[in-house]
Every structure is written in structure tokens, then in C-alpha cells.
Amino acid sequence: MKRICLLLLAVIFASFLAACSNKDDESSGEISEFRKVYAGEIKTLNYLKTAEANEFAMSANLIDGLIEYDKYGIVQPSLAVEWSANEDSTVWTFKIREGVKWVNHEGEEYAEVVAQDFVDGLNYVLDAKNESSTAWIATVVKNGNAFYNGEITDFSQVGVKALDKYTLEYTLENPTPYFLSMLNYVCFFPVNGDFLADKGETFGTTRETTLYNGAYILEKFEPQNERVLVKNESYWDKDNVFIDRLRFKYNKEALTVAPELFLRGEIDSADIPTSVVEEWFNDEEKKTKLRQIQNNFYTYFYALNFNPQYDAEYEPENWKIAVNNKNFRKSLFHALDRKSAMLTTEPFNPESLLNNTITPKNFVDVEGVDYTQLAPLADISNTDSFNADLALEYKEKALTELEGKATFPVKVVMPYNSSMPDWANRTQVVEQQLENLLGADYIDVIVEPGPSTGFLSEVRHPGKYSLMEVNWGPDYADPSSYTDPFTEGGTYNKPELAEGYTEANGKSKYQNMVDAAKAEMDIAKRYELFAEAESFLIEEAFVIPYAVGGTGYIASKLNPFEAQYSPFGVTLEKFKGQKVLAEPMSNEEFKEALAQWEKERAEALAKAGK
């Protein structure tokens, strides 16, 4: 009897295991899931409207564009299977991949992706009433700016056409040999026109009012709770999507609690705050789970705001008087000890991440010379801006020139995102360092915690700061991508409002320099002109360059060298092509893999003629 019972138990147990196995098995094996916690909530799924990085990260996995990149940064077909350009790169023609489907939030097919979808997408972006934050990029197309400004109202006059169901043509305002690199940006993504018209203003507000043609579908979208992405079974390239489910759990203290959650096996990736990095490296078990974050082409800098919009108690008018004095700006420029600031993120080798220009090294080159080594930018690129003696010299000059005009100490409002501990620590360090060097009788740095969600829209974009750490990533392979945030109507600090820089045509000197560079089509001369414009921006201390992006440490079960790679657009945010590792990569393994990847990338770029 005992033997029969044991046999019955064995059968029941086997059946239970089989049932569990079937639950996590979808013909190709066990379901792969990637889990992470986050603090910064997204506000919209409308990829045609947003310009926020965490919303780009979502869009990259839900929507495909015309092109994508491989793991070495070489452009690959996506929804376009082939393309060509005319001799001067003003007309580009794309053949659209046939059979790609739009699906709804339940994975049900809605329509085929066709050339007209890219026309409808650009129409939405360039319609000013939609307030797209990326419209300025799309004005590269002929008459794009004129349509946006209402100078023409017939969109058929804009340089984008569906020549037939699967043929798309762009006509550009000027020769643009780097146009392919721009197509990795959300403003050139497609949208189904019928669906857009049906949903109207509700488009992209929920998972139900969004269509998907990318690797994933949004299965759950509960703001400040959880968002879950699942593999799109109708995806045209689903064999290269290896993670079946992406689960992101909201936690307002995400950056603080994530390391412990990772150690407990509850999540698969966690940024490790600088405050605990050394402790992890000194622990025999923890140090095997920790690695550096791979550098990217985002650059970080401190912007001096010429149009402050904060409360009267912080004396914005007094700041405007001070910031319009070049010697005051130069005193801050040379007083900022960037190495001390970087220690809050990289305590082991901070100098390696400091960046003296807005455009980083290795971005573009001309005839083998890196852009940052072109005159006169080379002098800036090769010199540390921190110089205590110079800072104090400029302080004395500023005090003399501002006597009777500005009130000292000048209040300097410096906000930070409250969900980012390293940024909070760095702001405190910068406050103390600047005041100690320049004197609390000269400046009063006021550290302000900003919201964890909507920081860009509530603090940076409205200009509620005097001096603030900001960042910028390139949108295409041309130096103009790094000049745009500082031009008239740009994202940052309004340098066109600086007094004494308006020229005869009513534009600022910097704007005229950028316009001249953009109009030059000879690459060597073009880059020289951009280098001169960037040098002017920095020499006048409108900004203080700080660092390259991708700094810090992470514990992650993702291999960064499996991911698609590109400095431009949203490619880096894609999970397509990646797998969840059984164990996280150690720093030693990361360094070995990085060296191998760099070698392979150089070979791949040479082969591709880059």
C-alpha cells in the first residue's frame, strides 16, 4: 500500500511539474523576463509629441522606424528594406518592408504599415497645434519650417511623399548626407492615420489608445504602480527578440532600494549609488555583480540661465543683472571644480569622464582629425576649465563692474531631480565648493530639490533655475546636433537673451555663427565653422562643460555589448537582441568584453567604410 501511495505521489508531483513547466513555456522554452524598479514616471505614450528620455525608452520598444543599428553602430534595415539618395543628398527614397503589422494593445492586427504612415506621422509632428517637442528636428524636410509656422497650410507642399504603398520619398531643404542618422529619432516614426484620427487628443494617453509595430506591446500601464511590456508575436523580426516580458515596478525610492532588491534576486538591474560602490567592491560576493556603465555620447554641462522664472524671493532680476556680466560668468566658469563634482559619481578615476567641450570626442571627424581638435576648439578641449586663480581674478573684475548694479551675495538657484541620489550629493558638493572658493559674500548657492516625475517640464523647460546641471545627446551625425539646444527657441538657458550680443540682423552672434555653419556644405569648412561657434559659446561662459554620459556603476543581468548601439536617437534604449544573463557581469568581465567589442567595432566600421 505504501508503495502504491508513493507511486501516486510521484505521478501527481510529475503532473504538477509539467503544469508549471507548461505555464512558463511558449513552444520555444521558458519565458524570459527582465525586471527593474523606477522612480521617474512617464507622462505620455505619444512618441510624436515627447522629448523626454524615459519616454523615448518606452517608444523605442513599442515602435519601429525606418532604420535601426547593429551592436557595432552600423545602420541596418528596419521598416525600410533599402534606400537611396540623389547626388547632393537632398532627395531620399525608401522601400518599405511589406507585411509589417500594426497591432492593438491585445496584439490583434489592426492594419499594415505603409509609406503613408510616415507621411501622417510627420504631418502630426509639424502641425504646431500638436506642440511636438521634436518638431525642430523634422524641419530638415523641405517647407517643414514654413508649414510649422503657418506660412503654408497645404501639407502636400512639405517634402515627404508616399509615391506608392511601399515607396516613401523625403525632399530636404538642404543637402543632408547625415539624414539616415536622423531617422532613428521619434519625429520620423510612423503612425496609422485612421487610428490617429479616431483617437484624436486621446492618442497615446493609455495603452488602449496606442498602436504598436515594434518588438513589444504594452500589457499593463498603471502610472506610479507598474508597467509591463510583452513580446509582440506579430513583430516582423520576432526571432531576434529574446526577452519575452519587461516588468518595471514603480518605487519613488528606486535608486536607493534597487541595490538591495537586486541582491535579493527581485530585480535584474540596479544602478549602484556612489555612496556604496566602494563597499560593494570590498565585498567578495558583491564585487562579482558590479560593473561600470558603458560611456555614451550624452554630454553634461552646467547652463547659466538668462531667463530665470523662479519665485521673487530668490531675486531673479538680480541674477539677470549678474549673469549678463561676462566677468561674473567667467568667475563661475573657472571656479567649478569638476573633478570634485565627478567624485560623487566616479570615485576611482574621475578625470577619465570629464569633458571640456559640449560635443564629445570621437563623435565625428574630418580627414582623420577629431572634431574637438579643430581650431579654436582644440585649446578648450585640451585645457581644464577649473582655475582658482583665474576665478578670483574674474570675481574682482565682476565686483567692480557690478558695483551699484547688483546686490551681493547673488542668489544662485541650483535645482536637482530628487529621485537621483548622486545628483543630490553632487549639487551639495558644488554648492560648498563654489561658495568656499568665491566666498559666501559673493554668491549664495540655493540647492532646490525638484520633482522626481516631470522634472524637465516643471523645472528645466520653464527655466526655474540660475545654474543647473543639464545634459544633451545627439540626434544625428553632425556637429549641429550639439548646437541646437542653445540656438533661438532651443531647450537651454536662452543665451540669445544675453545683453550685448545682438548683431545687425537682429539675431545673436552665436545664432549667426551657427546659421553660417549650417549653410556650409563642404564638410571640412562646415566643421571648422561649428568648432568656432562652439568655442564662442564656451569662451563667453554661457555654459560650463562637465562630463560625458554613461558614468557610474551598475549591477545588471544584461550584456551591454549585445544591445543595438548608436549615439543617435533611441536605439540604445531597445531591448531587442538582448538576453537575460544567468549571472551579472563583473567589472573584470566588462573590461575584457569592452576591449573585444571596441576591436570588433573598429573592424566592422572599417569594413562598412565609416
Automatic annotation (TrEMBL):
GO terms for biological process: peptide transport. InterPro entries: Peptide/Ni-bd, SBP_5, SBP_5_CS, SBP_5_dom. Pfam families: SBP_bac_5. The keyword Transport applies. It is a lipid-anchor. Residues 1-18 form the signal peptide. It is found in: Cell membrane. GO terms for cellular component: ATP-binding cassette (ABC) transporter complex; periplasmic space. GO terms for molecular function: peptide transmembrane transporter activity. This is Peptide ABC transporter substrate-binding protein.
